[in-house]
Structure formats: structure tokens, C-alpha cells
Amino acid sequence: AAFTLQMKLTHVISMMQDWCALDEKVLIEAYKKCLAVLMQCHGGFTDGEQPITLSICGHSVETIRYCVSQEKVSIHLPVSRLLAGLHVLLSKSEVAYKFPELLPLSELSPPMLIEHPLRCLVLCAQVHAGMWRRNGFSLVNQIYYYHNVKCRREMFDKDIIMLQTGVSMMDPNHFLMIMLSRFELYQIFSTPDYGKRFSSEITHKDVVQQNNTLIEEMLYLIIMLVGERFSPGVGQVNATDEIKREIIHQLSIKPMAHSELVKSLPEDENKETGMESVIEAVAHFKKPGLTGRGMYELKPECAKEFNLYFYHFSRAEQSKAEEAQRKLKRQNREDTALPPPVLPPFCPLFASL
């Protein structure tokens, strides 16, 4: 039911944000109101949340004791995601630079901003690590829709943006320590020989495998936070660059028919994907033979834009794309390494990332 509501409201939320961006005063007021509501939601400690101090390598940070695997956690964070959308619009419309005195940016608490989106992404990581098997398909389905093209723009994408917002305002060492704590990996990295001692116990093979997966997921998240800057307002790009990148990465997996490609792209409120305006710049159309369908193939010069850690890839798509791109490089007698592409610079509001 919650995801049904999310799907129905996705375009409404997007249009509301666009409407706010049309008037600077409205955008500022909406941002203030949304922040006030978010601060109310975070007021005080709930069950299981106790203040603690984390220390690693001479760095210390105060946070709360919270285990995603044991405490209450939700995949639905509407207020946080709305604030993330408005924050990006402050950057995109340059309101943040024109009227800094009217905005409560100095009042923002980075740990507060990142807390719930981080919990949500840790939950996804734990599901991938097989830690929630006993919860059946209900949670698996929630994670699926969270990343699905119909919902991700106002869910997963906004969580990444909110984390980028918080991280850009805080000491990276502090963020990494909080991240280790939420991923429940803090003990492994902070205790000498903990990992060696733990992995030597044969009885804990499943736990070792889970920890390895969680470490991979955590590193993947760090790569996303630094590398995903193709949202207008986060990076110095426009909407055309964003849709081009989506198409490039879909066609990096395999050539696709028009209908298949459209299904893989997010639609706006008018059921438009924006594909038609950019497809010729990134793909060739291969006409159908006597049987079969016409297919779009990625232009060779666009292959350099391929990023193996593109955040909208599922694990299966990532594997297929990697295999396809390496095969292509072997055919062209090139080095099969897949270096990351040159990234656009961040907007000033996110520059400290």
C-alpha cells in the first residue's frame, strides 16, 4: 500500500518541487518549513538510540548507538527526501548563493541529515548480504521497488543526494566512522586483529561472508557519493546530460529496442522520458531484418562514458555491462580495464565533497 501511494505521488512531489523553484521566496519558505518538520521528527532519542563516542586512528565523533539489524527502520522517508530535492533546487537555481542570509544552512546538522537515508541504504546492503532472509519476500519486494525505475527518482536517488548534502558539510573522517557504525562494521575496523580472530573461527563462515558483502556495499556507497554528480544542482550538468548518461549505461549492457529502452528510463508527469531529444547523439539505430526488431546500439565514442559503478545498475546489470564492455574492448584489441570516466565538477554547494 505504501508503495502504491509512493507511485501515485511521485510525479506530484516532483511537480511540487519544480513549482517551488519558480519563485525564490516560495523555495526558501518551503525549504525552511521542510527542515523544521524534519528537525521535529528527529527530536530526542527513540528506543535503542543512546549517545556514544566512536574513536578510530585519533579521530573521534559523537553519534548514537543504533543497529539497523535490530532496531526499527523504514524505507519510507518522505520528509527527508523532499528536503533533499529542495536542497538541490537551492543549488540549481543559485538561491543558496544569492540569499545565504535567508536560509538556515548554518543550522543544518549533517549527522541528522544523513541518519535515516544511511539507515535505509544499510538495510538494502543487509538484504543483499542475506541478513534478512527470515523476513520473506515482503522486504525483498520493498528493496526492489526502492530501486525500481518507477520509484527511485523520489526514493533511492534522493537518499543519495541527502547523503551527499550531509557529507559535504562534515568532516569525512567523522562520516566514515558513522558509516562503519551503521553498517555494523565498526568493531572489525577499530579493534586490532578483530577480523583475523573472527575469520579464524570456522563456525562463523556465514557471518564472515555477510561482513565481506557489507564491506563491499559500503565501499560501493562511498563510490556513489563521490561519483554520482549527474543530477542538475549536485554537479554542473543539465537534464540532457543526465538522460544521456542513463541511455549510455542501458546500452552498455546490450543493444535495445526502442520500447525496451523507454521502459528502463524514468518518466516525467507527461509520460515522457526525454529520450527522443538525445538518442541520436549517443546511439546508432540498426534497422530490423526480415524478422526481429530494430535496435539501438551505443556509439563507440560514447563507451568512454561508461562507469562500472553506475548507481542505477542492479548487480545483474552491472555484471552484464562489465562483461559486454570487456568483450568489446577485446574485440578492438584494447586494454580490458574499465577506468571511470571524467566526472563533471560539483556545484559550489556540494564542492567540499
Query: Which whole number gives the mean pLDDT?
Result: 91
How many strands appear in the DSSP assignment? 4
The coarse overall form would be: globular
Protein structure class = mainly alpha
What percent of residues adopt helix (DSSP H or I)?
Answer: 40-55%
Number of domains: 2
Side by side, the strands of the main sheet go: 1-2
**Proportion of β residues?**
5-15%
* Number of helical elements: 15
Family: Belongs to the E3 ubiquitin-protein ligase UBR1-like family.
Domain E3 ubiquitin-protein ligase UBR1-like winged-helix: 243-339
Function: Ubiquitin ligase protein which is a component of the N-end rule pathway. Recognizes and binds to proteins bearing specific N-terminal residues that are destabilizing according to the N-end rule, leading to their ubiquitination and subsequent degradation.
Pathway: Protein modification; protein ubiquitination
Q: What can you tell me about this protein's structure?
A:
With 353 residues, the protein is mainly alpha-helical. The chain has 2 domains: 14-40 and 49-227, no CATH class; 239-332, Arc Repressor Mutant, subunit A, CATH 1.10.10. It has 15 helices and 4 strands. Strands 1-2 form a two-stranded antiparallel ribbon. Strands 3-4 form a two-stranded antiparallel sheet. The chain starts with a helix and ends in a 22-residue tail after the last helix.
